[in-house]
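Lab notebook: predicted structure, single chain.

Context: the supervisor wants predicted structures on file for every construct in the current expression panel, including those that have not yet been purified. This is the next one on the list. No modifications to the sequence; it matches the entry in the shared construct table.
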Amino acid sequence: MAPLEPLAIAATCAQLLDKYKAQNILMLWLEGLTTIADYFVIANARNPRQLRALSHEVLGIARRLDIRLLGIEGTAESGWVLVDLGDVIVHLFDPARRALYSLEVLWGDAPQGDWAAVLQIERAFED
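Prediction complete. Output recorded below exactly as produced.
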């Protein structure tokens, strides 16, 4: 099986987060700005329970698509969970932490991608 494109992985993560009612979803294209990742997907949850559920779903994407998980940092109770999928890093926040860290401002030079317009990886949505 051919390796998955980072854009497809990022957009699929964003689309799955949307399916599970994450709020304020952004996909930032970082290529050329940093070597840590090609894309950030940033979203927030309404409460710790939803934050935990969203991070669990992102981990499920990694498992279903056979993407090596490089790390997971933070907890739902801390208000920020980072899931490192290599070329794609998913940041999940509660609203207060999202406002505090303002990654979209910090990475303001990064173009925002239209995650809804990218064809999703269908097997990511299989149970």
